[in-house]
Amino acid sequence: MTLNESMICSLTRSLLIASIAIWPVAMVVARIDASPIVRSRRLRLLLAVFPFFLPELLIGFNYRLTATQLTSGTSPLTAAICTEGLYALLMLCRCTAVGVALSMLLPRGNSADESLHSWVLLRNRMESATWWAGWLRLRIFGAWQAPLVAWSVMALIAFQEFETAALMQIDRHPISWSVWLFDAHAARLPLWDSWRMMAGPLLCELVMLGPAMYVLLMRPTADGRDLNCDHGLNGGPSVRKSVRFAALLTPGIVLFVLWPLIHNAFPIVRGGMLMLDNATLRQSLVQILTSTGFAIGATVMSMGIALRICIAFNSSPVTIASRVFWVSLLLPGLLGSLVLSLGLLAMFQLPLMRGLYDTWFPMLLGQTLAVLPFAVAVMLLLMRVSDPAALHSAKLLAVSEESRIRRQMAAIRWRLTTGRWLLGGLIIAHRCFWDVTVASILRPVQVEPVITRLYNEMHYGRTEALMSLAILAALTPPAIAAAAMLLSRLATIQTSLR
């Protein structure tokens, strides 16, 4: 199969998945908004977006055996249909999680509905073409804004996906252009040929980005009500709504959480016992810490740039030129890790940059740019849920003479400031840590991150030690982050007691 055929199949799949996912996204968002309790809304949102945070590499490794079993003893056509269907279902669940997160992040005020109602009243007083142009604009920047951006990003994610498709691929299915091009590059395809072949996929990605870019660049400057609007309540809780919400989330929770844990529980425990007696445990820890170090560095850089982008977009007035400049920083990451990595690989082979080619800088820069769009989303979320009034009230308690009150004040202040930012950094670092493409293409020769070792070994077998190494790699960064959060919390409390 040629690259063009793979690209057409990937494009068709991604457009279908994104178009289908719009409906469950709308229903899940409606059910989240319908919850009358803030804690319940947060729990529902967490359950809805959780599948997105499960690493694609681990999901692909888990369902590689499932795909093999589905295709065993069947005809080639049946095997292809089963593999493609399972992969499409996984992508649908992941894209739905992304769509829900974006729909909840984007501002949703009532002013657009009021303007649309007023515009409808003017229909008989204006020329038809002018009226329809205005109506379409009000729709795009009103009720259609969140669905358009969500559809664009969901289609892009499904089109770019690499890790799950690479590990599930049985007899060249599921068909993916990213796997085809990555395998060709790994087989020593000249870099110029890789760039030439990437022209078609790159054009498709830019077209899919079109709706989101148009909305972000051309939307009118939002007023304070739209930027900080609370999601309305659509009625009280009911058994029917709860059952419907649970039915919408069940496929993602089962496919991404319950079945992988149940299916691999005993092999993981046995493999962990083997790893304790294995002389390669030290090497594995070094590789995990190497990946963690790169992830922390990329997280710090991406959060700094993302914060500057968010401040620039929230400032008023914002010119089109300013928006184009800041959005251009997001474009490399939006085009996907494969396009970004090959571009940086070519850049660091230029005479001026060749001295940095086999260093840590290309991989660090690649991870920073790859995760920057996600970092902007996290920064927007942190800024929207911030509560300056609560923070000011907590600081007023610092003058209390009772140590118990000052200790509680320090804990509240830490949760509203440092703890919130550390949690956001952990989420971003998690994405950096599990990016296989950037690490495989841009890592220095003398350094091997654990993610590249996992990716290579997962193609050749399903051993208990390999599964335990994957679990160890998954748990080490959160453990380090938990220790950092605990130490920073204790330091804040001790400072307040002095």
List keywords for this structure.
498 residues; mainly alpha; 23 helices; 79% helix; 0% strand; globular
Structural description of this entry:
With 498 residues, this protein is mostly helical. It has 23 helices and no strands. It has helices at 3-34, 38-53, 56-71, 76-105, 111-121, 128-140, 145-160, 163-168, 177-186, 191-197, 199-218, 224-227, 239-276, 281-314, 320-334, 337-347, 361-384, 388-396, 403-416, 418-433, 436-442, 450-458, 464-497. Helix 14 crosses helix 17 (361-384) and helix 18 packs antiparallel against helix 19 (403-416). The longest helix is centred in the middle third of the chain and has 38 residues, at 239-276. The model is unreliable at 222-237 (pLDDT under 50).
Topology:
Blueprint: H1 3-34, H2 38-53, H3 56-71, H4 76-105, H5 111-121, H6 128-140, H7 145-160, H8 163-168, H9 177-186, H10 191-197, H11 199-218, H12 224-227, H13 239-276, H14 281-314, H15 320-334, H16 337-347, H17 361-384, H18 388-396, H19 403-416, H20 418-433, H21 436-442, H22 450-458, H23 464-497
